Amino acid sequence: MIIDTLENASKYFSINPFFKEAFEFIMGHSNLEKAEDGTVGTFENLKAFVATFQGVSKETGLSKFECHDKNIDIQYCISGKETFGWKPRQKCVIPNGDYNPEKDVRFFSDAPDLFFELAKGQFVIFFPEDVHAPMIGEGEIKKLVIKIRYKHK
Q1: Which residue has better confidence, 40 or 91?
Q2: In the CATH scheme, what architecture does the domain 2-149 have?
Q3: Pairwise CA distance, residues 50 & 32, whole Å
Q4: Partners of 147 in the beta sheet?
Q5: pLDDT tens digits, 71-101
Q6: Can you give the pLDDT at residue 74?
Q7: HSE-up of 22 (CA within 13 Å, CB side)?
Q8: Is 35 exposed, middle or buried, given 0-12, 13-18 or 19+ CB atoms closer than 10 A?
């Protein structure tokens, strides 16, 4: 997991061949606050969508304690403040249902090791080994999520 601000995004370009394209997409869309919910870009190995929602309680958010096998998530806070729960996948031992290959998601019932908050202009990168509980917070939260096809080295 990586947490940072857009100003530092270029530091991460070398980690994955698609990070540069993903962050250039974010930086090239200065009007994200006005973007409507839904898919805003699809490329060969990237899919970007905007989501606006009302923050939920920690208990509700933890019901979606999730990770992905085939995608890396870059989640960028457009407005509001979003709290996430996090735990390394290797420490999660209580599955919550089966893996859904169509949605590339699996859930766990474990408790997070920590919680952190993103504010406007900040992003988090979740790799397949990062189990995360999104959407926790109060009030309206708007974010951009970019799904990047995960490629093993």
Answers
A1: 91
A2: Sandwich (2.60)
A3: 8
A4: 47, 73
A5: 999 999 999 999 999 999 999 999 999 999 9
A6: 98
A7: 30
A8: middle
Cβ-Cβ contacts under 8 Å for 112 (sequence gap 6 or more) = 62, 65, 85, 86, 87, 131, 133
Predicted local confidence at residue 95, as pLDDT: 97
Closest CA to 149 of 21, 5, 6: 21
Q: What is the pLDDT of residues 91-146, one digit of tens each?
A: 999 999 999 999 999 999 999 999 999 999 999 999 999 999 999 999 999 999 99
Q: Which residues lie across from 73 on neighbouring strands? A: 126, 147
Q: What is the pTM of this model?
A: 0.95
Q: Report the alpha-carbon distance of residue 32 to residue 3 in Å, rounded.
A: 20
At residue 71, φ and ψ (nearest 5 deg) are -135, 150
Closest to 85 in 3D by CA, of 143, 121, 130: 130
Predicted local distance difference test score (pLDDT) of residue 152 = 52
Q: Cβ neighbours of residue 133 under 8 Å, at least 6 residues apart?
A: 58, 61, 62, 64, 65, 66, 84, 85, 86, 112
Kindly state the tokens that stand for 145: 């999520």
Give me the helices (H) in 19-127, please. Answer: 19-27, 58-62
